[in-house]
């Protein structure tokens, strides 16, 4: 039989067959399209869930920062013998900056070997040095510490001349480009320069903070930005972000990157960098209309005050000003007499703090997030700054006759997001921030009187994208892994919460009960019902076997005989412990004395209300045999606590230690 | 009594549906103000296991939109409508065997595959046509690179495994 021909307008029967055939094809197409759209939507949702997990955990970690900062205050306020025995520690935290006359001392001591084939900068810097650096970094060369230090010293010198807010103007022929967080992702910076051109007098840029941490090329990004700034100080504007903070760097990777790339001079670099950060401007104001700051605002944001403060006194978000009362003054004098003789840092420096009000104003600028809800609320997710609503935005913008607030600080799937009725723009420039395929990056071009234009991009390792379902699978597994590590680090608390609800000791809970405990104990606002299938087993009645969540993950016990609760606790607080150890280890040797180790643990224990026998901890330290002439190698100590995923090809989890 | 138990059963079901719907909605509520962009409503509904056609989706959106469309859908309007949809088990997903038969209809010669051009033609010209983005995405996963065609039986099996 002949298949009907579209041209065949002949007899009724063949036309009817043709209609029937095309009707069947239509129905088949509809079925396939319907199915595919459903499938695609579920993929997109899984992708969104994964992002929500990453983000919740990230913010919960930031909240941990606050606890750590409270610990430092607690430590300093309540343990006077720490102040007496460890004056070095206190001055380290509160000491004033290194004087400029030390610059020559530092640089003179550094020799660049003839074998060095990395880039050599020529001061005063010109645009050729920018090109030189970019080319060198593309070939994965490392800039010698000598040049790094020179750039840092110069940058500090120039930044010191600048006010707290940079004021700049655009014109129809001179647009400005605003970039958000880069977080050490060098490829993204290269892509931006490739698409948008290098900075120059006719191509100005604002980089809105968070240049460093997390990514593996924070140093290279910083060098490119600082060198460009030195060449074009009036056209390349840098704003401080919450990660331009030496304590954040200890936790989120930059300190580690520096000590790894610069084994000999890393410590010096860290010291200078600490100060350079404090001189970064708080924000940029474009055409007196657009306020560009890293985080956001609060209802009490006072731009006049912020213009006036001595911004370089803001050393770290983790070091709020210590209250000054009579007692304090006495202690200050005590310190003044015992430590003034020591090394490069002077003390008696409690006067070198901001007032509490000033400090909070800066925290709000660096840490706040916009939300749809009206009003201003403490940012409980992050533990600092606030959530500000559209009414707050209007109020503050009107107060200072501004039109738009451009900020960064939050990762957005499309690289940017507009909210509060067009008045707040978030721009985020690190694509694939959480995981490959997690999000795009973006930058903004704008000039006075025209609508801002957005440019998006996404770096990919492969020459073409993997299919959507593979990308989603990848980020989903990664997110679930992280979530499981969270769960295991709170295993004892979770089991206690579950058992409280499990009256009949059946080992099972309803979905509602399980979700409630998970949210409460972990403090993560996640879609638990939708995620449950990845985390636990459910029986045919819809009840959850809550112990199944811990089945395929466990924390490796570095020493068999020690209690699980101790292992769990150290694992859970490992980033905090790392920061604390790093602070104590003032000469960055990686070693602290056994005695310091023990007394830190005691302090930590009491502040964090951890109930573990001291003897357990001692035994752990002894058995791990990390004792090297009475010192503990704390990096080795912490590395020994990691999570094993049973069904993993890799055995060690990505603990993402700072 | 049986009636009471039924009522309890429905109440519990409704309560659980409410929580499920709320979770799915919140994930897309970027500003945490109980609204989502209208363009994401289709994704939310589908993520809850329903498979409305584009036409049916259009009607659903009309039900949950404001009188004067703002581009945003509020949770208060979305919840009751979506609860009904779930209770009535509307827009059930396509079973695997129906999906296979649909592909076979488009492959009357029973070769076991569709050429890339054939799939594109059907998906973008018939039924409720795909956008370019949808077409490209489907192709990236469905195309067998060696033959440059869609081996639909393998494709379906792969997708089903991935979803489970």
Structure explained in plain terms:
The complex is a heterodimer of chains A (658) and B (164). Helices cover 48% and strands 11% of the residues of chain A. With 658 residues, chain A is of the alpha/beta class. Among the domains of chain A are: 117-323 and 354-451, Metallo-dependent phosphatases (Purple Acid Phosphatase, chain A, domain 2, 4-Layer Sandwich); 489-550, Recoverin, domain 1; 563-641, EF-hand (Recoverin, domain 1, Orthogonal Bundle). Chain A has a 6-stranded mixed sheet with strand order 1-5-6-10-12-11. A 5-stranded mixed sheet of chain A has the order 4-3-2-13-14, covered by helices on one side. In chain A, strands 7-9-8 form a 3-stranded mixed sheet. Chain B folds into 2 domains: 2-88, Recoverin, domain 1; 96-159, Orthogonal Bundle (Recoverin, domain 1), CATH 1.10.238. In chain B, strand 4 (143-144) and strand 5 (149-150) form a beta hairpin. In chain B, helix 1 crosses helix 4 and helix 5 packs antiparallel against helix 8 (152-163). The longest helix of chain B has 27 residues, at 2-28. The mean pLDDT of chain B is 88. Chains A and B meet through helix 1, helix 16, helix 18 and helix 19 of A and helix 1, helix 2, helix 5, helix 7 and helix 8 of B.
What descriptive keywords fit this protein?
heterodimer; A: 658 residues; alpha/beta; Purple Acid Phosphatase, chain A, domain 2; 5-stranded mixed beta sheet; 22 strands; 48% helix; disordered C terminus; B: 164 residues; mainly alpha; Recoverin, domain 1; two-stranded antiparallel ribbon
Q: Helical stretch count of chain B?
A: 8
How many E-type strands of chain A?
22
Helix share, percent of chain A:
40-55%
What's the architecture of the domain at 117-323 and 354-451 in chain A, going by CATH? 4-Layer Sandwich
> Mean pLDDT of chain B, nearest integer?
88
Strand order of the largest sheet of chain A: 1-5-6-10-12-11
Give the fraction of residues assigned to helices of chain B: 55-70%
For the record, what CATH class of the largest domain in chain B applies?
Answer: Mainly Alpha
Taken from the alpha-carbon principal axes, the silhouette of chain B is: elongated
Task: Look up the CATH topology of the largest domain in chain B.
Answer: Recoverin, domain 1
Number of helices of chain A: 24
- What is the name of the CATH class of the domain at 117-323 and 354-451 in chain A? Alpha Beta
Report the biggest beta sheet of chain B as strand number plus sense, adding barrel if it closes.
3 strands, antiparallel
């Amino acid at each position: 039989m002949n298949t009907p021909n579209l041209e065949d307008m002949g007899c009724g029967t063949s036309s009817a067959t043709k209609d029937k055939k095309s009707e069947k094809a239509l129905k088949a197409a509809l079925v396939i399209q319907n199915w595919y759209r459903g499938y695609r939507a579920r993929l997109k949702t899984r992708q969104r869930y994964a992002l929500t997990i990453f983000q919740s955990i990230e913010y919960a970690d930031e909240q941990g920062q606050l606890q750590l900062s409270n610990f430092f205050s607690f430590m300093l306020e309540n343990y006077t013998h720490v102040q007496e025995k460890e004056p070095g520690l206190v001055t380290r935290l509160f000491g004033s900056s290194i004087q400029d006359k030390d610059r020559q001392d530092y640089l003179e001591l550094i020799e660049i070997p003839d074998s060095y084939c990395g880039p050599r900068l020529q001061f005063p810097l010109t645009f050729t040095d920018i090109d030189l650096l970019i080319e060198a970094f593309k070939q994965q060369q490392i800039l010698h510490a000598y040049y790094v230090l020179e750039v840092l010293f110069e940058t500090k010198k120039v930044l010191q001349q600048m006010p707290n807010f940079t004021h700049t103007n655009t014109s129809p022929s001179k647009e400005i480009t605003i970039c958000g967080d880069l977080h050490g992702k060098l490829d993204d910076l290269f892509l931006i320069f490739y698409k948008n051109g290098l900075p120059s007098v006719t191509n100005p840029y604002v980089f809105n903070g968070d240049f460093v941490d997390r990514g593996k090329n924070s140093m290279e990004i910083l060098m490119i930005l600082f060198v460009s700034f030195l060449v074009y100080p009036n056209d390349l504007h840098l704003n401080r972000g919450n990660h331009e903070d030496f304590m954040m760097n200890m936790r989120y990777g930059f300190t580690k990157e520096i000590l790894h790339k610069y084994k000999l001079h890393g410590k010096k670099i860290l010291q200078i960098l600490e100060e350079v950060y404090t001189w970064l401007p708080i924000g940029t104001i474009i055409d007196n209309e657009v306020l560009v700051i890293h985080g956001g605002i609060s209802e009490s944001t006072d731009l006049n005050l912020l213009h006036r403060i001595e911004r370089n006194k803001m050393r770290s978000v983790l070091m709020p000003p210590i209250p000054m009362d009579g007692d304090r003054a006495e202690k200050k004098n005590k310190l003044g007499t015992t430590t003034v003789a020591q090394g490069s840092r002077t003390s008696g420096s409690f006067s070198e703090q901001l007032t509490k009000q000033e400090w909070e104003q800066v925290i709000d600028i660096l840490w706040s997030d916009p939300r749809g809800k009206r009003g201003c609320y403490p940012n409980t997710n992050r533990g600092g700054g606030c959530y500000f609503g559209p009414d707050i935005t209007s109020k503050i913008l009107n107060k200072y006759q501004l039109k738009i607030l451009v900020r960064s600080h939050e990762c957005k799937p499309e690289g940017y997001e507009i909210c509060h009725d067009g008045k707040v723009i978030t721009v985020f420039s690190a694509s694939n921030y959480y995981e490959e395929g997690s999000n795009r990056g973006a930058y903004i071009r704008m000039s006075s009187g025209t609508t801002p234009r957005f440019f998006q991009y996404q770096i990919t390792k492969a020459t073409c994208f993997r299919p959507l379902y593979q990308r989603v699978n990848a980020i989903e597994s990664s997110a679930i892994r992280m979530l499981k590590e969270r769960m295991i680090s709170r295993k004892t608390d979770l089991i206690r919460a579950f058992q409280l609800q499990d009256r009949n000791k059946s080992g099972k809970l309803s979905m509602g009960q399980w979700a409630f405990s998970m949210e409460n104990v972990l403090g993560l606002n996640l879609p638990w019902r939708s995620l449950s299938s990845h985390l636990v087993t459910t029986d045919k009645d819809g009840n959850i076997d809550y112990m199944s969540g811990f089945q395929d993950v466990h924390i490796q016990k570095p020493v068999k005989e020690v209690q699980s609760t101790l292992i769990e606790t150290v694992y859970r607080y490992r980033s905090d412990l790392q920061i604390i150890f790093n602070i104590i280890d003032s000469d960055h040797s990686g070693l602290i004395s056994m005695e310091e180790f023990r007394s830190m643990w005691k302090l930590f224990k009491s502040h964090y209300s951890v109930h573990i026998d001291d003897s357990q901890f001692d035994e752990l330290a002894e058995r791990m045999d990390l004792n090297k002439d009475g010192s503990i190698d704390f990096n080795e100590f912490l590395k020994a606590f990691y999570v094993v995923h049973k069904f993993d090809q890799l055995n060690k989890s990505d603990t993402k230690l700072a | 009594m049986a009636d009471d138990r039924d009522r309890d059963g429905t109440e519990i079901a409704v309560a659980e549906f409410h929580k499920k719907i709320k979770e799915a909605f919140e994930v897309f509520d970027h500003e945490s103000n109980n609204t989502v962009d209208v363009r994401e409503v289709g994704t939310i509904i589908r993520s809850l296991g329903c498979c409305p056609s584009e036409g049916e989706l259009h009607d659903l959106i009309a039900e949950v939109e404001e009188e004067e469309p703002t581009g945003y859908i509020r949770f208060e309007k979305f919840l009751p409508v979506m609860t009904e949809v779930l209770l009535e088990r509307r827009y059930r997903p396509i079973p695997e065997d129906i999906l296979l038969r649909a592909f076979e209809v488009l492959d009357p010669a029973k070769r076991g595959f569709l050429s890339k051009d054939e799939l594109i033609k059907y998906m973008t010209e018939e039924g409720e046509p795909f956008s370019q983005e949808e077409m490209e995405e489907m192709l990236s996963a469905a195309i067998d690179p060696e033959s440059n065609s869609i081996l639909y039986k393998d494709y379906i099996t792969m997708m089903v495994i991935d979803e489970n």
